[in-house]
Amino acid sequence: MQSPVLTTIAATGFTVAFLHAAIPTHWLPFVLVARARGWGRGKTIAVTAVAGLGHVALTSAIGLLIAWLGFRLEEMVEWFPRLAGGLLLGIAAFYFWRQWRGTGICHHYAPGSHHHADEHCGEEKEQSHWQEELKDTPIVSAKSGEWAAVSGLFVMLTLSPCEGFLPVYLSGVQFGWTGFFVLSGILAVATLAGMAIFTWLALVGFERFRLQAFERHEAALLGTLFAVLGLIILLLEHGH
């Protein structure tokens, strides 16, 4: 299996990362904090990018562990591509199960908020809900400085890695370190681009996105992508 498979994996990874970044948890808090503190668009986008880098860094660090373990396993199992394809199908089934159960993908909330991450899973997150989550935290409090706001946003996003991208790292193990670095670059580009685009659109007045329905069905979408990717890997390995 050569470049067509890596291209397919890369395209799937870009789609997963970009759509994940479109979820309001990745841009709406920045917009609300910017409005509360009177930040300009440039500063808001810059803070969003910094937090996005933390998000990408932690995800890549976990991906590095997955890649390293995958390399060791590939040395022992000559039919590793079939194993990877089967695991992707299993992961897809798990996401479909989460969607069927109505839990979807659970995302973290602001540090200092009075709610747990799973308290609102599967529910529609309106802007007023985020305002309620953030209002009593140092992120928007007038008594706290700019550093508290920026660091709070950074920690909030960094500690919520893109779990949906981790199976993509697994599928790229067969391409060695080249695959890992290519996928990490794609993760960074897609995530930062998605966060910046949706933050900017909200800042210029297009904040009435109806992305809640997309967020509720994120698990099903990820399940579909991983099922397709797993089948492609298995079919190409069978043909090879």
Comma- or semicolon-separated keywords:
240 residues; mainly alpha
Overview of this structure, please?
With 240 residues, this protein is mainly alpha-helical. It has one domain (3-239). Helices cover 70% and strands 0% of the residues. The protein contains ten helices and no strands. Helix 1 packs antiparallel against helix 10 (218-239), helix 3 (41-76) runs antiparallel to helix 8 and helix 4 (80-101) runs antiparallel to helix 10 (218-239). Residues 108-128 have low confidence and may be disordered.
Summarize the structure.
Helices cover 70% and strands 0% of the residues. It has helices at 3-21, 28-37, 41-76, 80-101, 127-134, 146-158, 166-171, 176-203, 212-216, 218-239.
How are the SSEs placed, and which strands pair?
Blueprint: H1 3-21, H2 28-37, H3 41-76, H4 80-101, H5 127-134, H6 146-158, H7 166-171, H8 176-203, H9 212-216, H10 218-239
Helix pairs in contact: 1-8, 1-10, 2-5, 3-6, 3-8, 4-10
Helix content: over 70%
Number of strands: 0
Taken together, the total number of domains comes to: 1
Low-confidence stretches: 108-128
Mean model confidence by pLDDT = 79
> Shape from CA axes?
elongated
- Secondary structure tally, helices: 10
Outline the biggest β-sheet.
none
Structural class: mainly alpha
**How large is the radius of gyration?**
19 Å
Strand % is under 5%
- Helix/strand order: HHHHHHHHHH
What's the end-to-end separation, in Å?
7 Å
